[in-house]
Design brief:
Elements: E1 5-10, E2 25-28, H1 49-61, H2 69-82, E3 90-92, H3 94-104, E4 107-110, E5 113-118, E6 121-127, H4 132-135, E7 143-147, E8 150-151, H5 157-164, E9 171-178, E10 181-188, E11 190-193, E12 197-201, E13 206-211, H6 218-230, E14 236-240, H7 249-259, E15 263-270, E16 275-280, E17 291-295, H8 302-312, E18 317-320, E19 328-334, E20 340-349, E21 365-366, H9 381-390
Parallel strand pairs: 13-14, 14-17, 17-18, 18-21
Antiparallel strand pairs: 1-5, 3-20, 4-11, 5-6, 6-7, 7-8, 7-9, 9-10, 12-13, 15-16, 15-20, 19-20
Helix pairs in contact: 6-7, 7-8
Length: 405
Protein backbone atom coordinates (compact mmCIF):
# COMPACT_ATOMS: atom_id res chain seq x y z
CA UNK A 1 0.00 0.00 0.00
CA UNK A 2 1.22 3.44 -0.84
CA UNK A 3 3.14 4.90 2.05
CA UNK A 4 1.55 8.03 3.46
CA UNK A 5 3.25 10.81 5.28
CA UNK A 6 -0.04 12.43 6.17
CA UNK A 7 0.08 15.77 7.80
CA UNK A 8 -3.64 16.25 7.82
CA UNK A 9 -3.10 19.67 8.95
CA UNK A 10 -5.43 22.41 8.23
CA UNK A 11 -3.81 24.81 5.90
CA UNK A 12 -4.73 27.60 8.04
CA UNK A 13 -1.05 27.09 8.49
CA UNK A 14 -0.76 26.61 4.79
CA UNK A 15 -3.36 29.25 4.51
CA UNK A 16 -5.47 26.48 3.41
CA UNK A 17 -6.37 25.11 6.68
CA UNK A 18 -4.57 21.66 7.15
CA UNK A 19 -5.98 18.66 7.95
CA UNK A 20 -6.13 19.26 10.12
CA UNK A 21 -6.91 18.05 10.77
CA UNK A 22 -8.45 18.15 11.53
CA UNK A 23 -6.92 18.76 12.59
CA UNK A 24 -5.12 17.56 9.78
CA UNK A 25 -5.25 16.88 8.91
CA UNK A 26 -4.68 15.16 9.54
CA UNK A 27 -5.81 15.24 10.21
CA UNK A 28 -5.54 16.43 10.11
CA UNK A 29 -6.69 16.40 13.07
CA UNK A 30 -5.81 17.91 16.66
CA UNK A 31 -7.19 16.37 19.82
CA UNK A 32 -8.13 19.09 22.27
CA UNK A 33 -6.97 17.37 25.45
CA UNK A 34 -3.56 18.39 26.82
CA UNK A 35 -1.87 15.63 28.78
CA UNK A 36 1.48 17.30 29.27
CA UNK A 37 2.81 18.17 32.72
CA UNK A 38 6.22 19.61 32.04
CA UNK A 39 6.92 20.50 35.67
CA UNK A 40 7.84 16.94 36.56
CA UNK A 41 10.43 16.39 33.83
CA UNK A 42 13.88 15.83 35.37
CA UNK A 43 17.20 17.02 34.01
CA UNK A 44 18.44 14.57 31.39
CA UNK A 45 22.10 15.28 32.08
CA UNK A 46 24.56 13.68 29.70
CA UNK A 47 21.87 12.87 27.13
CA UNK A 48 21.34 16.56 26.34
CA UNK A 49 24.95 17.68 26.62
CA UNK A 50 25.62 17.25 22.86
CA UNK A 51 22.81 19.69 22.13
CA UNK A 52 24.43 22.48 24.17
CA UNK A 53 27.86 21.59 22.84
CA UNK A 54 26.57 21.96 19.27
CA UNK A 55 24.81 25.22 20.15
CA UNK A 56 28.04 26.66 21.54
CA UNK A 57 30.07 25.42 18.59
CA UNK A 58 27.72 27.04 16.07
CA UNK A 59 27.86 30.35 17.91
CA UNK A 60 31.62 30.21 18.21
CA UNK A 61 32.73 28.81 14.86
CA UNK A 62 30.02 29.09 12.19
CA UNK A 63 31.32 31.27 9.38
CA UNK A 64 28.30 33.61 9.13
CA UNK A 65 27.56 35.50 12.31
CA UNK A 66 25.31 36.31 14.04
CA UNK A 67 23.24 33.13 13.74
CA UNK A 68 19.45 33.13 14.08
CA UNK A 69 18.74 31.66 17.52
CA UNK A 70 15.02 31.29 16.82
CA UNK A 71 15.75 29.29 13.66
CA UNK A 72 18.20 27.06 15.58
CA UNK A 73 15.66 26.35 18.29
CA UNK A 74 12.87 25.58 15.84
CA UNK A 75 15.20 23.40 13.76
CA UNK A 76 16.25 21.44 16.84
CA UNK A 77 12.62 20.81 17.82
CA UNK A 78 11.76 19.79 14.25
CA UNK A 79 14.64 17.32 14.19
CA UNK A 80 13.81 15.87 17.58
CA UNK A 81 10.19 15.21 16.63
CA UNK A 82 11.08 13.92 13.15
CA UNK A 83 13.32 11.27 14.76
CA UNK A 84 10.21 9.66 16.27
CA UNK A 85 9.11 8.61 12.78
CA UNK A 86 5.48 9.67 13.31
CA UNK A 87 4.05 11.89 10.60
CA UNK A 88 1.49 13.46 12.94
CA UNK A 89 3.97 14.54 15.63
CA UNK A 90 5.36 17.91 14.65
CA UNK A 91 6.30 21.42 15.67
CA UNK A 92 4.12 24.42 14.83
CA UNK A 93 5.76 27.81 14.45
CA UNK A 94 4.19 30.69 16.40
CA UNK A 95 2.42 31.81 13.21
CA UNK A 96 1.16 28.30 12.48
CA UNK A 97 0.07 27.83 16.10
CA UNK A 98 -2.00 31.00 16.05
CA UNK A 99 -3.54 30.16 12.68
CA UNK A 100 -4.51 26.65 13.77
CA UNK A 101 -6.21 27.93 16.90
CA UNK A 102 -8.10 30.56 14.94
CA UNK A 103 -9.26 27.87 12.54
CA UNK A 104 -10.84 25.85 15.32
CA UNK A 105 -12.79 28.96 16.23
CA UNK A 106 -14.34 28.97 12.76
CA UNK A 107 -12.49 31.53 10.61
CA UNK A 108 -9.15 32.09 8.88
CA UNK A 109 -7.58 33.87 5.91
CA UNK A 110 -6.31 31.79 3.02
CA UNK A 111 -7.49 29.71 0.07
CA UNK A 112 -9.29 27.04 2.12
CA UNK A 113 -8.16 23.45 1.51
CA UNK A 114 -6.95 20.56 3.64
CA UNK A 115 -3.69 18.94 2.52
CA UNK A 116 -1.43 16.03 3.36
CA UNK A 117 2.08 15.05 2.28
CA UNK A 118 2.07 11.78 0.33
CA UNK A 119 5.44 10.45 -0.84
CA UNK A 120 6.86 13.97 -0.73
CA UNK A 121 3.96 15.55 -2.60
CA UNK A 122 1.78 18.27 -1.06
CA UNK A 123 -1.62 16.77 -1.86
CA UNK A 124 -5.12 18.17 -1.47
CA UNK A 125 -7.39 16.11 0.77
CA UNK A 126 -10.36 18.34 0.07
CA UNK A 127 -11.28 21.99 -0.45
CA UNK A 128 -13.34 23.62 2.26
CA UNK A 129 -16.99 24.23 1.48
CA UNK A 130 -17.45 27.73 0.05
CA UNK A 131 -13.72 28.49 -0.04
CA UNK A 132 -11.64 30.10 -2.82
CA UNK A 133 -10.02 26.68 -3.34
CA UNK A 134 -13.42 25.11 -4.03
CA UNK A 135 -14.42 27.97 -6.33
CA UNK A 136 -11.16 27.55 -8.25
CA UNK A 137 -11.95 23.86 -8.85
CA UNK A 138 -9.33 22.19 -6.65
CA UNK A 139 -10.15 18.50 -6.10
CA UNK A 140 -9.09 15.78 -3.66
CA UNK A 141 -5.88 14.21 -4.92
CA UNK A 142 -4.57 17.34 -6.66
CA UNK A 143 -0.83 17.80 -6.09
CA UNK A 144 0.49 21.29 -5.42
CA UNK A 145 3.75 21.45 -7.38
CA UNK A 146 4.56 25.17 -7.17
CA UNK A 147 3.41 28.30 -5.38
CA UNK A 148 4.30 31.55 -7.17
CA UNK A 149 6.99 29.68 -9.09
CA UNK A 150 8.65 28.04 -6.08
CA UNK A 151 8.82 24.23 -6.14
CA UNK A 152 6.87 22.59 -3.30
CA UNK A 153 7.77 18.96 -4.07
CA UNK A 154 9.53 17.41 -1.08
CA UNK A 155 9.07 20.56 0.98
CA UNK A 156 7.95 20.40 4.59
CA UNK A 157 4.36 21.55 4.98
CA UNK A 158 5.33 24.35 7.35
CA UNK A 159 7.81 25.69 4.79
CA UNK A 160 5.23 25.48 2.02
CA UNK A 161 2.82 27.29 4.30
CA UNK A 162 4.96 30.40 4.20
CA UNK A 163 4.75 30.43 0.42
CA UNK A 164 1.01 29.92 0.14
CA UNK A 165 -0.50 31.82 3.04
CA UNK A 166 -1.32 35.52 2.89
CA UNK A 167 -3.95 38.10 3.72
CA UNK A 168 -7.39 38.22 2.17
CA UNK A 169 -7.45 39.96 -1.19
CA UNK A 170 -3.97 38.85 -2.28
CA UNK A 171 -3.44 36.16 -4.93
CA UNK A 172 -1.26 33.07 -5.15
CA UNK A 173 -0.40 31.23 -8.37
CA UNK A 174 -0.40 27.46 -7.94
CA UNK A 175 0.93 24.83 -10.34
CA UNK A 176 -1.38 21.83 -9.94
CA UNK A 177 -0.81 18.25 -11.07
CA UNK A 178 -3.94 16.19 -11.70
CA UNK A 179 -3.96 12.73 -13.29
CA UNK A 180 -0.42 13.25 -14.60
CA UNK A 181 -1.12 16.60 -16.25
CA UNK A 182 -0.23 20.03 -14.90
CA UNK A 183 -1.99 23.37 -15.08
CA UNK A 184 -1.76 26.73 -13.35
CA UNK A 185 -4.51 28.36 -11.34
CA UNK A 186 -4.45 31.74 -9.63
CA UNK A 187 -6.48 31.89 -6.44
CA UNK A 188 -7.36 35.06 -4.57
CA UNK A 189 -7.14 34.49 -0.84
CA UNK A 190 -10.09 35.42 1.31
CA UNK A 191 -11.43 35.20 4.83
CA UNK A 192 -12.82 31.68 4.96
CA UNK A 193 -15.77 31.27 7.26
CA UNK A 194 -16.02 27.81 8.71
CA UNK A 195 -19.56 27.14 9.84
CA UNK A 196 -19.11 23.42 10.11
CA UNK A 197 -22.75 22.39 9.69
CA UNK A 198 -25.44 22.97 7.09
CA UNK A 199 -28.50 21.01 6.05
CA UNK A 200 -31.95 20.89 4.51
CA UNK A 201 -34.95 18.73 3.83
CA UNK A 202 -34.65 16.82 0.56
CA UNK A 203 -37.50 15.46 -1.51
CA UNK A 204 -39.47 12.46 -0.22
CA UNK A 205 -39.06 13.50 3.42
CA UNK A 206 -35.31 12.86 3.74
CA UNK A 207 -33.31 15.09 6.09
CA UNK A 208 -29.75 15.98 5.03
CA UNK A 209 -26.99 17.25 7.34
CA UNK A 210 -23.50 18.16 6.12
CA UNK A 211 -20.64 18.26 8.66
CA UNK A 212 -17.47 19.72 7.13
CA UNK A 213 -15.18 19.62 10.18
CA UNK A 214 -15.22 18.97 13.93
CA UNK A 215 -14.72 22.46 15.30
CA UNK A 216 -15.30 23.84 18.77
CA UNK A 217 -18.89 24.83 17.97
CA UNK A 218 -19.83 21.84 15.79
CA UNK A 219 -21.84 19.84 18.38
CA UNK A 220 -24.04 22.85 19.18
CA UNK A 221 -24.43 23.71 15.48
CA UNK A 222 -25.44 20.14 14.59
CA UNK A 223 -27.80 19.85 17.55
CA UNK A 224 -29.61 23.02 16.47
CA UNK A 225 -29.85 21.86 12.84
CA UNK A 226 -31.17 18.43 13.81
CA UNK A 227 -33.81 19.94 16.08
CA UNK A 228 -35.03 21.96 13.10
CA UNK A 229 -34.97 19.02 10.69
CA UNK A 230 -36.47 16.44 13.04
CA UNK A 231 -39.36 18.78 13.77
CA UNK A 232 -40.39 18.20 10.15
CA UNK A 233 -40.82 14.46 10.81
CA UNK A 234 -38.37 13.08 8.20
CA UNK A 235 -38.44 9.41 7.24
CA UNK A 236 -34.66 9.18 7.30
CA UNK A 237 -31.46 11.17 7.81
CA UNK A 238 -28.30 11.43 5.69
CA UNK A 239 -25.16 12.58 7.54
CA UNK A 240 -22.54 13.74 5.04
CA UNK A 241 -18.93 13.36 6.28
CA UNK A 242 -17.30 13.42 2.84
CA UNK A 243 -14.13 15.53 2.63
CA UNK A 244 -14.27 16.06 6.40
CA UNK A 245 -10.65 15.85 7.65
CA UNK A 246 -11.53 15.69 11.34
CA UNK A 247 -10.80 18.15 14.13
CA UNK A 248 -11.42 18.11 17.88
CA UNK A 249 -11.85 14.68 19.43
CA UNK A 250 -14.22 16.03 22.10
CA UNK A 251 -16.48 17.33 19.32
CA UNK A 252 -16.53 13.88 17.69
CA UNK A 253 -17.52 12.29 21.01
CA UNK A 254 -20.26 14.84 21.67
CA UNK A 255 -21.66 14.44 18.15
CA UNK A 256 -21.58 10.62 18.34
CA UNK A 257 -23.64 10.91 21.52
CA UNK A 258 -26.38 12.62 19.49
CA UNK A 259 -26.86 9.46 17.39
CA UNK A 260 -25.95 6.55 19.67
CA UNK A 261 -27.62 4.73 22.54
CA UNK A 262 -25.56 3.85 25.59
CA UNK A 263 -22.26 2.18 24.75
CA UNK A 264 -18.67 2.78 23.75
CA UNK A 265 -17.86 5.49 21.20
CA UNK A 266 -14.13 4.82 21.04
CA UNK A 267 -11.25 3.54 23.11
CA UNK A 268 -7.84 5.20 23.43
CA UNK A 269 -4.77 3.05 24.08
CA UNK A 270 -1.64 4.71 25.38
CA UNK A 271 2.01 3.67 25.26
CA UNK A 272 2.09 2.82 28.96
CA UNK A 273 -0.67 0.23 28.52
CA UNK A 274 -3.50 2.40 29.85
CA UNK A 275 -6.84 2.38 28.02
CA UNK A 276 -9.60 4.98 28.27
CA UNK A 277 -13.08 4.46 26.84
CA UNK A 278 -15.60 7.17 25.96
CA UNK A 279 -19.28 6.34 26.30
CA UNK A 280 -22.56 7.59 24.87
CA UNK A 281 -25.17 8.75 27.40
CA UNK A 282 -28.36 7.53 25.67
CA UNK A 283 -29.69 11.10 25.65
CA UNK A 284 -29.22 12.05 21.99
CA UNK A 285 -32.07 13.41 19.90
CA UNK A 286 -31.32 11.34 16.78
CA UNK A 287 -30.98 7.81 18.13
CA UNK A 288 -33.92 6.25 16.32
CA UNK A 289 -34.25 7.82 12.88
CA UNK A 290 -32.98 5.63 10.00
CA UNK A 291 -29.47 6.85 9.22
CA UNK A 292 -27.02 6.74 6.32
CA UNK A 293 -23.51 8.20 6.64
CA UNK A 294 -21.71 9.37 3.48
CA UNK A 295 -17.92 8.93 3.54
CA UNK A 296 -15.03 9.11 1.08
CA UNK A 297 -11.24 9.14 0.94
CA UNK A 298 -11.27 12.63 2.46
CA UNK A 299 -13.13 11.49 5.60
CA UNK A 300 -10.42 11.25 8.23
CA UNK A 301 -9.68 11.06 11.93
CA UNK A 302 -12.68 12.39 13.89
CA UNK A 303 -14.90 11.57 10.89
CA UNK A 304 -13.75 7.97 11.17
CA UNK A 305 -14.38 7.99 14.93
CA UNK A 306 -18.00 8.99 14.30
CA UNK A 307 -18.56 6.73 11.28
CA UNK A 308 -16.88 3.78 12.99
CA UNK A 309 -19.03 4.12 16.10
CA UNK A 310 -22.24 4.36 14.05
CA UNK A 311 -21.24 1.30 12.02
CA UNK A 312 -20.19 -0.86 14.98
CA UNK A 313 -23.38 -0.08 16.89
CA UNK A 314 -25.38 -0.94 13.74
CA UNK A 315 -26.95 2.46 14.12
CA UNK A 316 -26.69 3.21 10.41
CA UNK A 317 -24.86 2.23 7.23
CA UNK A 318 -21.89 3.78 5.44
CA UNK A 319 -22.14 4.70 1.75
CA UNK A 320 -19.36 6.03 -0.49
CA UNK A 321 -15.66 5.19 -0.62
CA UNK A 322 -13.08 3.86 1.85
CA UNK A 323 -12.09 6.52 4.36
CA UNK A 324 -8.64 8.02 4.82
CA UNK A 325 -7.33 5.84 7.66
CA UNK A 326 -6.00 7.92 10.58
CA UNK A 327 -6.21 5.97 13.81
CA UNK A 328 -4.07 8.01 16.19
CA UNK A 329 -4.85 10.77 18.69
CA UNK A 330 -2.83 13.95 18.99
CA UNK A 331 -2.66 16.53 21.75
CA UNK A 332 -1.45 20.08 21.49
CA UNK A 333 0.97 21.84 23.84
CA UNK A 334 1.75 25.53 23.54
CA UNK A 335 5.40 26.47 23.98
CA UNK A 336 6.96 29.53 25.61
CA UNK A 337 7.95 31.01 22.22
CA UNK A 338 4.32 31.10 21.06
CA UNK A 339 4.73 27.98 18.94
CA UNK A 340 3.34 24.58 19.75
CA UNK A 341 3.96 20.86 19.63
CA UNK A 342 1.38 18.49 18.21
CA UNK A 343 2.24 15.03 19.48
CA UNK A 344 0.67 11.61 19.04
CA UNK A 345 -0.33 10.24 22.43
CA UNK A 346 -2.49 7.20 21.68
CA UNK A 347 -4.16 4.91 19.21
CA UNK A 348 -7.92 5.02 19.00
CA UNK A 349 -10.14 1.99 18.32
CA UNK A 350 -13.75 1.70 17.22
CA UNK A 351 -16.27 0.09 19.64
CA UNK A 352 -15.47 -3.30 18.07
CA UNK A 353 -11.76 -2.52 18.66
CA UNK A 354 -10.92 -2.00 15.00
CA UNK A 355 -7.82 0.14 14.34
CA UNK A 356 -8.45 2.01 11.09
CA UNK A 357 -4.92 3.38 10.74
CA UNK A 358 -3.72 3.37 7.11
CA UNK A 359 -6.62 1.10 6.11
CA UNK A 360 -9.71 3.22 6.72
CA UNK A 361 -13.33 2.17 7.01
CA UNK A 362 -14.84 0.32 4.07
CA UNK A 363 -18.42 1.43 3.39
CA UNK A 364 -21.34 -0.97 3.49
CA UNK A 365 -22.09 0.16 -0.06
CA UNK A 366 -19.11 1.26 -2.17
CA UNK A 367 -20.22 3.97 -4.59
CA UNK A 368 -17.70 5.80 -6.77
CA UNK A 369 -18.58 9.08 -8.42
CA UNK A 370 -18.35 8.48 -12.21
CA UNK A 371 -16.12 10.50 -14.51
CA UNK A 372 -18.09 13.13 -16.39
CA UNK A 373 -18.08 13.37 -20.16
CA UNK A 374 -17.93 16.82 -21.77
CA UNK A 375 -21.18 18.65 -21.25
CA UNK A 376 -22.57 15.99 -18.94
CA UNK A 377 -24.41 17.24 -15.85
CA UNK A 378 -22.91 16.21 -12.52
CA UNK A 379 -25.07 13.94 -10.37
CA UNK A 380 -24.23 13.04 -6.78
CA UNK A 381 -24.66 9.28 -7.10
CA UNK A 382 -23.48 8.68 -3.53
CA UNK A 383 -26.20 10.95 -2.16
CA UNK A 384 -28.77 9.36 -4.48
CA UNK A 385 -27.77 5.89 -3.24
CA UNK A 386 -28.33 7.04 0.35
CA UNK A 387 -31.77 8.38 -0.57
CA UNK A 388 -32.68 5.16 -2.39
CA UNK A 389 -31.61 3.06 0.60
CA UNK A 390 -33.71 5.08 3.05
CA UNK A 391 -36.75 4.86 0.74
CA UNK A 392 -36.35 1.12 0.22
CA UNK A 393 -35.56 1.41 -3.46
CA UNK A 394 -33.19 -1.00 -5.27
CA UNK A 395 -29.50 -0.15 -4.82
CA UNK A 396 -27.43 -0.42 -7.99
CA UNK A 397 -24.10 -0.63 -6.13
CA UNK A 398 -23.22 -4.03 -4.69
CA UNK A 399 -22.68 -4.07 -0.91
CA UNK A 400 -19.25 -4.95 0.47
CA UNK A 401 -18.53 -8.53 1.44
CA UNK A 402 -19.35 -8.24 5.14
CA UNK A 403 -22.88 -7.08 4.27
CA UNK A 404 -23.47 -9.20 1.16
CA UNK A 405 -26.34 -11.65 1.13
Amino acid sequence: MKSRVSILFLIVIFTFLGFNAGYLFGQSPIAPIQFFNLAGISDTGEATSPIMETWQLVHARYYEQPVDDDALVQGAIDGMLASLGDQHTRYLSPEAEEAARLNMQGEFQGIGAEVEAIDGNITVVSPIDGSPAEAAGLLPGDILRQADGVDLTGMDVSEAAGLVRGPAGTAVSLLIERDGETFTVEITRDTVELPSVRGEMLDDGIAYARLSQFGDRSPEELQALLEELLAQDPVGLILDLRRNPGGALTSAIDIADIFLPEGTILTERFGNGRSDSFKATDEGIAQDIPLVVLVDEGSASASEVLAGAIRDHERGILVGQTTFGKGTVQTWQELSNGGGVRITIARWLTPDETWVHETGLEPDYVVVQPELADGEEWVDVQLQTAVDYLLGRPITSAPTEQNDG
